[in-house]
């Protein structure tokens, strides 16, 4: 039995030795695992920060592109609007000539010429109205510097006509609500 006991004791000692060595190895590995875990956590945080930065950059880039697209569309619209305004401004002297011709022809006896001139004037005016042109009403209106340009002053006897437009020298026009030519008027004082 003593041999058996000795063997058991030896086995027990061997088991204890092995157990101690395993514990040492585990203790060695645990700090390494913790270091790796910390390293991975740090790397994970860095990657999250990088992804957040890239996402923010992407959103900003998309917003910049949307602003660029909107500004480009506005610029194109402004260009078309400016071009049409220039063309319409160029046609205003033709309207003035038609108005003068109609005034002169009303004094004459030629009804055909009056009708022809009125027809041309009305067609041109109706086309320009579809493009946004409006005549500025001035005669007997209160003088308004936003729409009228005073070229002369005329003394008037009636008190209610003072500060009002007495006569229109040149018709004014607005295009889509913006004044493209002020009405040149004579103001009563």
Question: In sequence order, what are the helices and strands, one letter per element?
Answer: HHEEEEEE
Query: What's the mean pLDDT score?
Result: 86
Strand portion, in percent? 15-25%
CATH class of the domain at 134-189: Mainly Beta
The quaternary structure here is single chain
> Largest sheet, described in full?
3 strands, antiparallel
Helix content: 55-70%
What is the strand arrangement across the widest sheet? 1-4-5
Overall geometry comes to rod-shaped
CATH topology of the domain at 134-189: Nucleotide Exchange Factor Grpe, Chain A, domain 2
Short description:
The protein is an alpha+beta fold and 189 residues long. It contains two helices and six strands; from the N terminus they run ααββββββ.
Would you kindly provide a written description of the structure presented here, covering whatever features stand out?
The chain is an alpha+beta fold and 189 residues long. The chain has a domain at 134-189: Head domain of nucleotide exchange factor GrpE (Nucleotide Exchange Factor Grpe, Chain A, domain 2, Roll), CATH 2.30.22.10. 67% of the residues lie in helices and 15% in strands. The strands form 2 sheets. It has a 3-stranded antiparallel sheet with strand order 1-4-5. It is rod-shaped. The model has no long low-confidence stretch (mean pLDDT 86).
